[in-house]
Amino acid sequence: MINCKIRKNHKIWPLSVLLITVVMINCAKKPATIKGTVTDDEGALLAGAAVFSVPQRYKTLTDTKGAFVLDGIDPGQYSILVKYGDDSTLVNIGLVEPGEVFVTSIVLEKTPPPPPPPPEEKPKPKPKPKPKPKPKPKPEEPFVDPVLQNGEKVLLLASKEFFPKFEVESSDGLVWELKNVKTSKLKFKGGRMYEGYFSGPQPKYYETAARRCIYDKKLWIYTHGPEDTPANGREIYIAIPLELPGNVDIDSLVVFYCFPRFPEGVPPGSVKFRVVGETSTGGISILIDWQKVNHSSNGSFYKKMVPTRGDNRKLEYVSLEINSDGDAYWDAFLIRPLVYFSVR
After folding, report:
1. In whole angstroms, what is the distance from residue 55 CA to residue 58 CA?
2. C-alpha distances in angstroms, 88 versus 57, 226, 317?
3. Nearest-CA neighbor of 326 among 172, 185, 144?
4. pTM: predicted TM-score of the whole model, two decimal places
5. pLDDT tens-digit profile of 289-325?
C-alpha cells in the first residue's frame, strides 16, 4: 500500500528517497571500535604497549591489564601495530564494519637478539717478500803471473805450488803455522793478499812471517814481523824446497825486493835480507849476501841476479833470511825470488 501511495503521490516520493539516502549515509559513517589485549609470547599481559592502527590514524596505550581500545574509528580495512620497547608486531585484522566492535588479542613476539658478530679475524700477516737473491759475483779470473806466461823455464818461488812447502821459523825459536784465509786487501797501497799466510803464536796481523800477495800485478812473498820484537830484532828463516829432477840445471837466481808504497809517512829504520842455497849433497853457500833496505826507499824496486856455477846448479833448497831491526811496524818487506833453469 505504501509503495503504491508513493508511486501515486509525486510529492511524497522525493521525500522518501531523501530519507532513505540520509539513513544509508548515516549507517555507512557510523564509527566502529577495535579493542583487545596485548600479551607477550609467554602469555603475560603487557601494560604500556603502544597500539597503532594501520593506516596510522589512531593510537593508544594498553592499560595495566594489557587492554586497549581504539574508539570512534572509520570503518574499513585495518591492521594493528603493537610496539613495546624494541619489540613490535603487526597483525592484519581485515574489514571493520560500520558500528562494529571488533575484538582481538595480539601476541607481541620478542625480536630475537641479533646473532653475535663473527669473531674478528686477525689480519693475516703479509708474507715477507722473499729477499732477492744477491747477484753472484763474477768469478775472479785466476791470476797468472806474467813471468809464467813468457815461455821461459822458471820457478817462481812465490807461486801456489811452492808456498805450502815453506819451512818457516825465527831466530827466537818461534815456529810459524800455515793458515788459509780468504782474499783480502793488505794495508799498504796497491796490495792484495792472495791466499794463505804463516802466522806465529799470537794470531794478530803483525804476528805474520809470510803471505802470498799481489803487488805491482805480480806475485810476491810478503813478510812482516810482530808488534813486539826481541831487543836485537828478529830474523825470519823461510826455507823453500825446489824438488827439481836430476836432469835439470839451475842457470841463475833472480830476486826482486822492495818496501811496498805506504800512503802514510815513512819512519826511520831498515830491513836487511840474504839468500842462502843448499845443494842435494848438503853444501851450503851464500847466494846473495846481506842487503840493507831503508824505509826511505818506500815503493822503490831493487833487483839482484846470481848466475849459478858448480854444485849450486843442483840446489835443493833456497832459504830467505829477513832480519828486522826492531822497528817491526814498518817492516812490511816484499821479496820475489825466481829460479831460471834448463833441461839437459
Report:
1. 8
2. 18, 99, 113
3. 172
4. 0.59
5. 999 988 888 888 999 999 999 999 999 999 999 987 6
